Amino acid sequence: MSKLKKVVILGATGSVGSQSLDVIRDHQDSFEVFGVTANSNVNKMLQICSEFKPKYVVLADTKASSLLKEKLKSLRLKTEVLQGDKALQELSSNSESDIVISAIVGSAGLKPTLAAIEKGKRVLLANKESLVISGSIMMDAADKCNAEILPVDSEHNAIFQCLPSGYKVGVEPNSVSRLILTASGGPFLSKSLTDLGSVTPEQACAHPNWDMGAKISVDSATMMNKGFEVIEAYWLFKVDLEKIEVIVHPQSIVHSMVEYIDGSMIAHMAVHDMRLPIAFGLGWPARVKKAVPSLDLHQLSKLEFIAPDVKRFPCLQYAFDALNAGGATPAMLNAANEVAVAAFLQGQIKFIDISKIIDAVLQHFGNYKAGSLEEIMIADEKARCYADAVVRGRNIG
Ligand code: NDP
Residue 38 Cα, ligand 1 centroid: separation in angstroms? Predict the structure, then answer.
């Protein structure tokens, strides 16, 4: 009898985290929850601990973790509560676990993800921001420490499945001419630039196909998410940037495609449900039974593929430009985006100001050189301060 695989879920209270728990709930003969983390959501964490009884829980927020500790004690639950950013890294690199699911949102996911990679873990990567910030450092660490990165982002998971059997993330694949990332186009696909001026955070978060956290929903609406995915694909699959393309496919049935040099194109199709790439990563190389319902081809009336419009969605172009610029520019792109999206969600700026703030930051710093993680984090902080000043000064062009 094979032993249960011990799983750590970073960002367990979020959208990807909850769907990871769904998969484990359905496959308790194969996986167990060893550790879970969140920022401050005590109530949701209490429910998770009651149901899955993990050995460890970490909350980044110290007040919230003290409250959780009290509540767990009153329920006589034995889960050990740890707190703070350092504990996040300790749990993700704990030698007892087999798999780490990286599903914290934003740059907060970087250090715990890197800690898991440096420990040579299997890492199911949803936190794309960590690759955007420090792709070269992360991929070098994965190579050196023999970590196994498996993409959970549905597009990258699709590409991984379309690459030849035995393909290893981080190695240039043979005979590939194009990687084609599909994009749903988000909730504002058919809105004019004028209409985009008055959209609300609620509208931006109402994605037509996917139920996601607020930040990635807004990223999806601006197409910054697709820009980040271009950067993510560049690092994961080691192809030239010229070979990476984006196509809008509003139905989200084809999750991405790989074209080979002979003109063959292999596409991955499935219902849009994150439990599929999560189950894929957990079970790999075996397939997990019935991770999602079958795709009913009779129900599909059409599949459309449309060129993206970078005039209305300039963030996509900024990602290509930032990757071309190299150094700390992608990290600064991410930092500016995090500040701008948070300001939009708080009602401080308009939707169309998000791209303007990012542009202002990129213009201000130009091609910012950085090599080490420390240098990148300094650049990240500078970009945040500048973006914050632009938000507060409201001097958006
Ligand atoms: P959510 O906002 O739903 O969840 C975010 C999680 O991160 C929560 O558990 C949250 O804890 C935790 N968190 C937030 N800030 C911190 C912090 N400072 N320190 C520690 N933990 C923190 O996000 P999603 O699940 O939607 O997305 C997670 C990641 O996966 C993102 O990088 C996203 O781009 C990527 N992704 C998401 C997809 C989706 O379908 N949702 C699809 C593909 C990729 P708390 O609840 O306490 O705030």
Answer: 8
